[in-house]
Design a protein that fits this description.
The protein is an alpha+beta fold. 29% of the residues lie in helices and 12% in strands. The chain has a domain of 34 residues.
């Protein structure tokens, strides 16, 4: 049974920035993307699972 999609309207700017800071500290857990990335302040972030 597939997981339900999260309601992204509940996601705050601060939550996104906190996640990007964590990725900067710990490094990505996913391989580089081949389709699209989030680009913030010149850095590229691959989509997560």
């Amino acid at each position: 049974m597939p997981k339900p999609e999260p309601d992204l309207s509940l996601l705050t700017r601060e939550q996104v920035l906190r996640a990007l800071r964590q990725l900067d500290r710990e490094g990505p857990r996913m391989p580089l993307s081949t389709v699209y990335d989030l680009v913030y302040r010149g850095r590229r972030y691959a989509p997560g699972p």
